[in-house]
Amino acid sequence: MAKKLRIGLIGYGFMGRAHSNAYRKVSNFFDLEYQPVLKAICARNEANAIAFAKKWGYESVETDWRRLLERDDIDAIDICTPNNSHAEIAIAAAKAGKMILCEKPLSMDGPEGVDMVKAVEKAKVPNMVWYNYRRVPAVTMAKQLIEEGRLGQIFHYRAKFLQDWTISPELPQGGAGLWRLDAKAAGSGVTGDLLAHCIDTAIWLNGGFASVTAMTETFIKQRKHTLSGKVEKVGIDDACAFLARFKNGSLATFESTRYARGHKALYTFEINGEHASIAWDLHDLHRLQYFDHKDEGKLRGWRSIHVTDHGGEHPYMDKWWVPGLQIGYEHSFIHQVADFLAGLASGKPAGPTFRDALETQFVCDAVLKSAKTGAWEKIKSAAK
Ligand SMILES: NC(=O)c1ccc[n+]([C@@H]2O[C@H](COP(=O)([O-])OP(=O)(O)OC[C@H]3O[C@@H](n4cnc5c(N)ncnc54)[C@H](O)[C@@H]3O)[C@@H](O)[C@H]2O)c1
Question: What is the DSSP string of 212-232?
């Protein structure tokens, strides 16, 4: 019989739904020693929490996350709340001896992230941060191709994450659904929200950052705050572009904005190596573009690989339908839960751990600092 992993999930918004869906489906598709049980959902509004529990199959409801930590029928806490609550909840959960799955970005900034890493490592509790794009099969396959040495030396890494939903000056900041525009709740704007994803993927695929130089802009300087009702200064970066040098000698460019009219969630990256190049696009997430200079000259060109094959050739795909049928965004969360559960069984923790995610936090800090100083900033090491 499978061992149970009893989940207490906090926050029933976008990520609360994505994670609940992953917990519900993972055991149907993956054969694992552990099986998640939806033990409790925590949200401040009881009526909404009860409705969510009914819809998703949670056994119970809490309205204060502290109560969740006192319960001995909960093994793991899943933090799906805005960024300014991650540290407080995670540190308390670690003290209570709970495993922790925390949404990204790990923290509001590097120093807060350091405290979180200390807490989970002191308590020796399994921990993971939901940088889910690592588990899109085409992205996982990019990692495999790089590890197999197919690209050779990497010269360039290029990433962008473009949206267009905050262009209207009438859009308020703060409160439900709009906390991302409030620096007090989000920590930063596109840097911590969107570039954090690009940075995590880049660290995973291309190794550590050495230094960065950045520029940011806040196009709308004041917005009405939903909670105070007053017009307040906007403290987040609406757009950010930065240059980076990686420890492996490669040069990189990163760009993110919520002001790219026509783009909703255009996360793309391209990597150029000595022998081959790779490109990926979230809007076409099941495809990996690959160019191999070793191909016969006459036929040499970009291949568009439909990453849906079985037989262990395409990551995760043998767990799904038949070759040629694609999967989507929500599956990246199912894969991440599967890897977390497999890591519990094997004793080899699935990444990114809190310490892995701290590295991303240090890059974000350096980017935001450089945008103020105009200087190149070195990246602090997150290694032990
Ligand atoms: N991995 C990803 O791709 C991804 C995507 C979106 C969001 N996120 C991250 O997930 C987190 C949540 O984002 P979201 O988009 O789901 O936000 P959301 O606004 O949709 O949901 C946040 C939820 O937290 C609840 N909440 C806030 N404070 C609470 C508290 N003290 N106790 C209990 N519940 C509380 C809110 O009521 C809401 O249900 C953020 O850290 C965000 O950066 C990650």
Answer: EEEEEE-SS-EEEBTTT-SEE
Which ligand 1 atom is at minimum distance from the Cα of 333?
1
Tens digit of each residue's pLDDT (9 = 90 or more) over 168-215? 999 999 999 999 999 999 999 999 999 999 999 999 999 999 999 999
Domain boundaries, the chain: 3-132, 134-377
Specify whether domain 3-132 bears CATH 3.10.490.10: no
CATH architecture assigned to 134-377: 2-Layer Sandwich (3.30)
**Residue 97, by phi and psi: left (phi above 0), alpha (psi -120 to 50) or beta?**
left
Structure tokens at 106: 């790990």
Whole-number Å distance between alpha carbons of 193 and 107: 11
pLDDT tens digits along 331-360:
999 999 999 999 999 999 999 999 999 999
Give strand pairing partners of 4.
35
What backbone phi and psi angles, to 5 degrees, belong to 324? 100, -20
Looking from the CA of residue 133, the nearest atom of ligand 1 is 3
- Distance of alpha carbon 20 from the chain centroid: 16
Enter the pTM of the model: 0.98
Binding-site residues, ligand 1, Cβ < 6 A: 10-16, 42-44, 65, 80-83, 85, 103-104, 130, 132, 177, 193
Please state the atom number of ligand 1 nearest to the C-alpha of residue 45.
37
- For a pocket test of ligand 1, which of 15, 180, 201 has the largest count of ligand atoms closer than 8 A to its C-beta? 15
Residue 292 has a CB neighbour count (10 Å cut-off) of: 17
pLDDT at 179: 98
Measured in whole angstroms, the distance separating CA 104 from the mean position of its chain's CA atoms is 5
The tokens of 300 are what?
A: 């040499």
